[in-house]
Amino acid sequence: MARRPLLLITCALVLIAASPAISWAKITPQEAARLGADLTPLGAEKAGNADGTIPAWDGGIKTPPAGYKPGDHHADPFAGDKVLFTITAANMSEHAAKLTPGHQAMLKTYDSYKMKVYPSRRSASYPQRIYDATKKVATTAELTGGGNGITGAVMGIPFPIPKNGSEVIWNHLTRFRGNVAARKTSQAAPTRGGGYTEVVFEDEFNVVYSQEGQTEESLANRILYFKQKVVAPARLAGGILLVHETLDQVKEPRAAWLYNPGQRRVRRAPNVAYDNPGTAADGMRTSDQFDMFNGAPDRYDWKLVGKKELYVPYNNYALHSDKLKHKDILTPLHINPEHLRYELHRVWVVDATLKEGTSHIYKRRTLYFDEDSWQILAVDQYDKRDQLWRVSEGFVINYYDVPMLWTTLEVHTDLQAGRYLAIGLDNEFDMYRFDIERTLEDYTPAALRREGVR
Terminus of the chain with fewer CB atoms < 10 Å: N or C? Predict the structure, then answer.
């Protein structure tokens, strides 16, 4: 019995040593001075790689291509690029060091899958005010609540020189995506044989965290407001989801409401989080897979593995083209690889491991973050047996009318079911709009009730 106090003291010391509040420190002014110098304004390595296959960052896309008009589908500024080589199951071993486990599994599983690799274009660019805000908050931003919230940051990327995985995931959660964005898109979850029904959405993102003039106090603990209305098919039409995403997830969890057209009522929706099923997704994704990852990070331990050079989806303007129909993209087993573009980029790698005492259908996730934008480009998700289960890809473009890098399509491929979910198909619809005006009153339960018409 005499050893028990000593054991308790030892355990306490271990916990203290691992405590985020003790081990996580702000970056110094000297470190912050690197932003815009040898590092880009958002913290990426400005220089190219040693062998020249990744170029230096020169500011990204500064002007839209000639002839582009706001509201158009975004023309491909790299349409003249030729395929450097194509990775298939037959030659995968030659490129394995630069492939994620997920991409290797896709190549092994599907003979029809391939990766066309193009010249690397570091196209990511952002408004100067985002760069200025990032430099300002770089020395003040801190994790709170064991990594489940942040303080001391607004508008800019909070941790441009990250010291741990929690900081990296918060960079993704707070990244710039315009002020208010509206889009009409569809999603589809084809069967193994290729049959599908498209579900059409009208989405709005009001990203208050990034808006000019914001302070931490004026945010009132909100990062963004999200509204999603189901337009088709008729059996689902009229349902509306409203989400208030919070900055400090411990102080106040996400708030969500659903308008049910059958009942004509608005109800709280606490299940729109974590591993609860995504909206009309046929069980093919969890709520927190939308936007590659969203919501509270509190169920995982986030380990920063480091930075790697990998082939990742990038500059997918061909996939975004209004010359394509959705049926051209939605092929059996996986989306049509003929329309995909992969490039070699440096990515931050983070392993998220499920915490003891919590639950989620994914025991582990490995996430790959673009160094130039903090956008997640790929995620490998593992089941309770530690088997790779689902592979997620974020096919990005620079929306150069804003400017910023964001997905034009995200795809979640289930290797075990031989199916996938494609979210954000926009080829047959009018483009994203980034010029709409909204007030916070437009994102209240009362506004949701007024909008419901069925």
Answer: N
- Domains identified in the chain, total number: 1
How far is the C-alpha of 260 from the C-alpha of 240, rounded, in Å? Answer: 7
Q: Report how far residue 17's alpha carbon sits from residue 11's, in angstroms, rounded to the nearest whole number.
A: 10
Verdict on whether the full-model pTM lies above 0.90: yes
Residues 434, 178 contacting (CB under 8 angstroms) = yes
Mark residue 304 as left, alpha or beta (left: phi above 0; alpha: psi -120 to 50; beta: remaining). beta
Look at the chain and count its residues. Answer: 454
> Please, which residues have CB within 8 angstroms of residue 395's CB and are 6 or more apart in sequence?
313, 316, 319, 320, 340, 407, 408, 409, 410, 411
pLDDT tens-digit series, residues 234-285: 999 999 999 999 998 778 999 999 999 988 899 999 999 999 999 999 999 9
What pLDDT does residue 104 have? Answer: 98
Residue 49 falls inside a structural domain: no
Q: Is residue 202 a contact partner of residue 232, using CB atoms and an 8 Å limit?
A: no
For residue 235, being part of any structural domain is answered with: yes
For 87-93, the CB contacts below 8 A with 24+ separation are 87/114, 87/115, 87/117, 87/311, 87/342, 88/114, 88/115, 89/113
Encoding tokens for residue 191?
Answer: 């069967």
Q: Is residue 375 part of a domain?
A: yes
Task: Name the burial class of residue 33, with classes exposed (0-12), middle (13-18) and buried (19+) by CB atoms within 10 angstroms of its CB.
Answer: middle
Q: Is 5 exposed, middle or buried (0-12, 13-18, 19+ CB in 10 A)?
A: exposed
Helix segments in 159-284, DSSP class H: 165-173, 216-219
Which residue has tokens 């331990």?
Answer: 301
User: What is the domain-level CATH number for residue 108?
Assistant: 2.50.20.10
Q: Which residues contact 277 (CB under 8 A, 6 or more apart)?
A: 283, 285, 286, 287
Task: At 152, list the tokens.
Answer: 């001391």
Domain membership of residue 320 (yes or no) is yes
DSSP tally for the chain: helices H, then strands E? 11, 17
Alpha-carbon distance of 91 to 76, in angstroms, equals: 29
What is the mean pLDDT of the segment spanning 72-100?
97
Residue for token pair 């690397």 = 120
Report yes or no: 317 and 76 within 8 Å, Cβ to Cβ. Answer: yes
Neighbours of 72 (CB within 10 A): 14
Residue 345, number of CB atoms within 10 A of its CB: 25
